[in-house]
Design a protein that fits this description.
The chain has 135 residues and is mainly alpha-helical. The protein has 5 helices and 2 strands, in the order αααββαα. A hairpin with a 3-residue loop joins β1 (66-69) and β2. α1 (13-27) packs across α3 (50-62) and α1 crosses α4. It is 62% helix and 6% strand. It has a two-stranded antiparallel ribbon.
Amino acid sequence: MFFQLNFKSGVPVYLQIVAQVKSAAASGALAGGEALPSVRVLAESLRVNRNTVAKAYSELEMEGVVETRPGTGCFLKLNGSSPLRRAVRSERLAAEIDGVIVQAHHSQISDDELRKLLEERLELFRAEQKRRKAD
C-alpha cells in the first residue's frame, strides 16, 4: 500500500493515514484479511514517529476497520459488505457533490437549474446503462 502525506494540509498525519487506509479498503485496493505494514516499517517509510502510526492503527481498530493480532500485526477486517465501504463511498461522493455545488454557485446556476441538470444527467446515464445491457 502506498501512502501520501501532506504535512502542510493542516490535517493531522495520523488522520491522513486513517483516511487512506479506509479509502483503500473501500476501493478494494486492500482486501479483507490483508496485512497492513508494521508500525515500525510504515513509520520509517513515511518518516514519521512510530506513535503517529500506532495512533492511526488504534483509531482504525476502534472504528472496526482493522484488527490487531498479537505477534502477527494489523490486518484489514474480513467483512465483505462492510458499512465502511458504503460510508467511504458516500463521503467521497459528498465531497464531489460539494465541489459541483461550489462550481454551480460561481457559475451563477440556481439550485433549481442544478437539480434539473442532475436529473437530466441521471436519465442519460440510465439510458446508456440500458443500451449497454441490451447489446
